[in-house]
Structure formats: C-alpha cells, structure tokens
Amino acid sequence: MTLHRRGNQFLNQFSCACCVTSLGFAEMRKVVLVTGANSGVGLALCERLLSHDTEGLHLCLACRNMQKAQAARSDLLASHPAAQVDLLQMDTSSVSSVLSAAQEFKVRYDRLDYLYLNAGIMPNPEFDVKAFFKGLFSSNVITMFATGEGILTQKDGVTTDGLQQVFATNLFGHFLLVRELEPVLCHEGRTSQLVWTSSNNAHRSAFNPEDIQHRTGTQPYSSSKYATDLLSLAFNQHYEKQGLYSSVICPGFVMTNLTYGILPSFPAILWTLLMPVFWLIRVFTNTFTLTPYNGSEALIWLFRQKPESLDPYAKYHSLTSGLGNNYTQPHKV
Ligand SMILES: NC(=O)C1=CN([C@@H]2O[C@H](COP(=O)(O)OP(=O)(O)OC[C@H]3O[C@@H](n4cnc5c(N)ncnc54)[C@H](OP(=O)(O)O)[C@@H]3O)[C@@H](O)[C@H]2O)C=CC1
Ligand SMILES: CC(C)=CCC[C@@H](C)[C@H]1CC[C@H]2C3=C(CC[C@]12C)[C@@]1(C)CCC(=O)[C@@H](C)[C@@H]1CC3
C-alpha cells in the first residue's frame, strides 16, 4: 500500500516532466554509473570506458542479477586489472529497489559524473511475418530495417508496484533514479551527464500522453522509448542551470539478448548464419551496427564530448558503414 502511494507520488512528478565509497575528494576519479551493465550494449560500454581511461574512472555497474553482475565484473577486471569496478544491486522495474540502490550509492560516493540509463526490456515480442514480407517489397524497406516499424508488437505485464512492466523498467525506474541522485549529480562548478539508451523504434504514434504507461496498446517498447526522448528534453530544461545535461542515443540494430528474444524459436546458429545477410543490409542502412561494441559507439562518443557543446534536441546514433567503420551522427528528435 505504502509502495503504491510512493509510486504514485513519483509518478505524478514524472507525468509533469513528460508532458512538456568510498571515494573521497582526495581521489579525483570520475564516477560512472551504468544500468543494465552486465550484458549487451551496457557491458560493451563498460569495456570501452575502461580501455579509454582505466586509471581515471570509478565504474559502478547497476544490475538486477548479482550473479551476472559478478561475472561481468570479473570479465572487465580480467582485461583491466587496475580498474576500479563496483557493483550495485538495482531492479529498475521496482520502486523500492531503485530507492534503496540510490540511497546506497549516495552513502558510497560523493559525486556522479556520468549516469548511463541503459537497462531495457522488450518482453513477449511478436514478430509479424506477413508485415515483414510485405515490407520487404515496399518502398519502406530501409525504414523497416532501421526502425522495426510495423513488424513488432509486445505483450506487457504489470509490476508489483502496479506499473506497466516496460514503462517501469525502461523509463520510470530511471526517472526515479535521476531524481534520487540529484545531490551527487548537481554540483556547483562541475558538469554531469545523463545518457539514455533510446531507440530508432521510438514512434510518436505509439505514445499517448493520456496513457503514458501504454496500458492499452501493443507497442509499449516504442512508447517507452518515445517517452525517454521527451523526458530527456524535459530534463535538459529542468536541470539547465544546475550543470546537468541529458542526451539520448540509439545503438542501432545490435545482436544482444534483447534481439535474440524477438525470434525465440530461432536457434543461435541461425542468427550466426544470417550475419552475411545483415552485413549486406548494412550497405543500405548504416543502422545495422550488429555488435555491442559498435552499438556502444554513440555512448562512448558522448563520454568524450563537452556536454555544453551538445544539442539537447538531437538523438545521437551509433552507425556502422558498409565497410565496418563506426561513427556517431546526431539527428533531430
Ligand atoms: N539490441 C538492439 O538492437 C537495441 C537495443 N536498444 C536498447 O539498448 C539497451 C540495452 O539493451 P541490449 O544491450 O540490446 O540488451 P541486453 O538484454 O543485452 O541488455 C539489457 C540489460 O538491461 C538489464 N535489465 C533488464 N531489465 C532490468 C531491470 N528490471 N532492472 C535492471 N536491469 C535490467 C539486463 O539485465 P539481465 O541480464 O538481468 O536481464 C541487461 O543487463 C536497452 O535499453 C534497449 O532497449 C535500443 C535499440 C536497439
Ligand atoms: C529473419 C531475417 C532475414 C531478418 C529478421 C529481421 C528482424 C528480426 C530484424 C530486422 C530489423 C530489426 C530491428 C529490431 C529487431 C529485429 C529486427 C526487426 C529492433 C526493433 C530491435 C530493438 C530496437 O530498439 C530497434 C532499433 C531495432 C530496429 C531494427
């Protein structure tokens, strides 16, 4: 009951926004928190951050499953033994878990320089084979491959807090996290960055401001990503004067647990056999980044930028050329 009330209280704050260590000061390592860091794009980002700057960073992996988190930490330390890598238990779909993780974070660290809001799900996806083949022979074929538009729907669930699962996991838990971490994110004389993993699949048509959780539709994933884009814009306005900057990225189409789940009956070997087809498609659409390493390009690119120089109205895309070269390109949201 109490949880429901707290959830609702925060949900009200959220709606408004959407509709428009142990480390001491002596140690000046930048603190980076990554959600959904134990696999896919999040793990590749951690690896690349450590390759970029092993000594200057204090990395904190926020994961719901501590066994997977330990495995990811061991992998990272195997290639970067001098790195500082901590774990934080957090389930972004649960209000109480996010609140206690944020509390724990504030006890452990007194600063947060980069917050990567990356955890995400696309549960019970349904792939419309008929629409896919129709799309293949239409003028929209490139858009279909770049965005997945018109060929994917999902069946959503409800969390124990009474929120829609996709909304809670992809967006609301992250919203709550940012609000709770304000004291470590907003510091005078220092800037911090929020970086959201959004998607090309974010469609305005899927988002209904009267139903921000997408209780009644079949595209909760698209809706949650569109709301992510809106929220980032709103955060930029809200935190402008406090030195906190927010950006959204799309990693492109990446082979990860999330995408394997789209065709669950497809054995892993078939995905591997399809790789030459995907490389060919990449010649026509540079959004087929395919590997988590390539997909994390825009995330690492943003890490290297001065946040003041970023366009708050842009979505930064990880792209891979037909020849396999990675680059980042902004497109207006
Ligand atoms: N793959 C793609 O083509 C694209 C992906 N994206 C986005 O990229 C992001 C990363 O996904 P990707 O790397 O592809 O997929 P993965 O499934 O590999 O990674 C998703 C990560 O999110 C974590 N996660 C899921 N639910 C929760 C939760 N309730 N609490 C905490 N962590 C959670 C997962 O943890 P666990 O291992 O425990 O499940 C995992 O670490 C997502 O936001 C996704 O929407 C956007 C566009 C394209
Ligand atoms: C079986 C063959 C030959 C192809 C399968 C194609 C689709 C499974 C695939 C084509 C474009 C992909 C895509 C996504 C999922 C898988 C596809 C539909 C996403 C929707 C995954 C999640 C995202 O956030 C989008 C950016 C992706 C867009 C492209």
Order of helices and strands: HEHEHEHEEHHEHHEHEHHHHEE
Small molecules bound in the structure, each named once: NADPH dihydro-nicotinamide-adenine-dinucleotide phosphate, the ligand CC(C)=CCC[C@@H](C)[C@H]1CC[C@H]2C3=C(CC[C@]12C)[C@@]1(C)CCC(=O)[C@@H](C)[C@@H]1CC3
Q: Using the 3D structure, state the CATH architecture.
A: 3-Layer(aba) Sandwich
User: What do the pLDDT scores average to?
Assistant: 92
pLDDT < 50 runs, ≥5 residues: 18-26
How many domains comprise the coordinates? 1
Give Rg in angstroms: 19 Å
What top-tier CATH class fits best?
Alpha Beta
Total beta strands: 10
Question: What form results from the Cα inertia axes?
Answer: globular
**Count, helices:** 13
What would you say this structure looks like, in words?
This protein is of the alpha/beta class and 333 residues long. Helix content is 44%, strand content 17%. An eight-stranded mixed sheet has the order 3-2-1-4-7-8-9-10, with helices on both faces. 45% of the residues are buried. The ligand CC(C)=CCC[C@@H](C)[C@H]1CC[C@H]2C3=C(CC[C@]12C)[C@@]1(C)CCC(=O)[C@@H](C)[C@@H]1CC3 binds next to helix 6 and helix 11.
